[in-house]
Amino acid sequence: MADVDRLLAFDRDHLWHPYSSAAETAPPYFVESASGVRLSLRMPDGSGQDVIDAMSSWWCAIHGYAVPQLDEAARAQLARMSHVMFGGLTHEPAIALAERLVALTPPALQRVFFADSGSVSVEVAMKMALQLHVGTGTGRTRFFTIRGGYHGDTFSPMSVTDPVGGMHSLFTGILPDHVFAPVPPAGVDLPDDDPAMAAWERETRRLYAAHADDIAAVILEPLLQGAGGMRFHSPRVVQVLAELAREHGALVILDEIATGFGRTGTMFALERAAVVPDILCVGKALTGGYLSLAAVLCTDEVAHGVSSERAGGALMHGPTFMANPLACSIALASLDLVQDNDFSTQVRGLEVGLTSGLEPAGALDSVVDVRVLGGVGVIQLREPARVGELAAAAMERGVWVRPFRDLVYTMPPYVTTPEDLSTICDALVQSVATVHG
Ligand SMILES: *Cc1c(COP(=O)(O)O)cnc(C)c1O
Fold first, then answer.
1. Which residue of 140, 184, 293, 316 pairs with 327 in a disulfide if CB–CB is 3.0 to 4.6 A?
2. DSSP H helix total and E strand total for the chain
3. Nearest by Cα to 101 from 83, 115, 82, 122
């Protein structure tokens, strides 16, 4: 058995954790293994505890852990090769996965670039848009997006992430200055003629018109702004941005890294808006949470535009681990499961369970909003979440949860049973009640 105390001491002194300070004192929990929807933790006193993962490991592990079909896909691919370079070489896992992605997404999207993470896929999408405009000679270099978004942590994605959430003020003069429309009014089902919606559309159109000649592309997360604040907006928001782009000769980039593969109830959130992007980014759940892999899909028009002589003649991007065969094989097996398990029924079940299970939180003094969309359940607090205390309180109730800002939320694995789902909901509601009142 691992000497957890010693390992945690080394972790504290030598490792970075996400969004952490080197001076941070709260120790992380030590995971020994994971199976089904549960993480097996080893506590410093040597005791073990199993907890339900209400986060799906940051929204990726949609089928849970130690999934026999995904394990088998990994083993079968390991026996052939775990990796080869993608420059000048190709292989069946990449080709088969590209075929699947082309079949699953709108017919206009015909070309696939495999990246090694979501942020890199957004880098590639933005580079494609900029390069295309070099090719057409418009000189356009700016992006148009909405506040409250999140597109990744490397510099280009960070430049279109919410200026406050992305800490743009730290990087003034280094970060390119893009154009941000207001946060859209809340609610997926908000009617198009709602006054707040009409006001948002007016302001967004006005802002866009002021910059139209500079805008290379619009970029947004359809329906769900994830790490930027777990906000939901109506399909109309996606349509307005796409219309503006089309009217003014800009491209449409949709970032479905969080929403892709069923999380909001449809395979892709863009289906609800009936918007076909020029460029689409997918990632996170693509490999069922097993390995890091993302993909950028684009139209033939974009692909050929970027490859034109005037645009440089080639897309200058090629990560070392591009199209990693192991990741591609597991992604194929994961997509089989998404379809065989009937994800839409699974996610509908999550939506029903989360809606009734989280509802009691609405009565708490500390809570300003409770909202659910597909397999996403959010409790929004009046004040910043006391993350450590909330996690500990949920853990006592058998659930792993990692709140951020003023948000206590869950994105459970699709395979979560109704019993486990109600354990998650009870743990969230009771933890909020205990810690925040
Ligand atoms: C997580 C996320 C990213 C970044 O993906 P990484 O794999 O963490 O680099 C980009 N866009 C959205 C919408 C995301 O949710």
1. 293
2. 14, 16
3. 115
Q: What percent of the chain has pLDDT over 90?
A: 95
- The protein residue with its alpha carbon nearest to ligand 1, atom 11, reads 151
pLDDT (tens digit per residue) in 366-392: 999 999 999 999 999 999 999 999 999
Integer CA distances (angstroms), 340 to 343, 345, 346, 383, 429, in order: 8, 11, 11, 42, 33
Residue 360 has pLDDT above 80, yes or no: yes
307-344 pLDDT, tens per residue? 999 999 999 999 999 999 999 999 999 999 999 999 99
Active site residues: 19, 150, 255, 284
Ligand 1 atom index nearest CA of 226: 15
Question: What's the pLDDT at 179?
Answer: 98
pTM comes to 0.98
436's enclosing H/E stretch is helix 418-436
Find out whether the beta carbon of 151 lies less than 6 Å from any atom of ligand 1. yes
- In this structure, the number of other CB atoms found within 10 A of the CB of residue 192 comes to 12
The sign of the CA dihedral 338, 279, 200, 247 is negative
Q: What is the pLDDT of residues 129-169, one digit of tens each?
A: 999 999 999 999 999 999 999 999 999 999 999 999 888 88
User: What mean pLDDT value characterizes the chain?
Assistant: 97
Atom 6, ligand 1: which residue's CA is nearest?
118
What domains can be seen in the chain, in order of their start residue? 3-66+342-436 (3.90.1150.10), 69-340 (3.40.640.10)
- Consult the annotation and say whether 157 binds a ligand: no
Q: Is the dihedral of CA 378, 380, 384, 389 positive or negative?
A: negative
Cα–Cα distance list, 424 to 227, 296, 408, 429 (Å) = 20, 34, 12, 9
Is residue 118 marked as binding?
A: yes
The ligand 1 atom at the shortest distance from the C-alpha of residue 255 is 13
Q: How many CB atoms lie within 10 A of CB 129?
A: 27
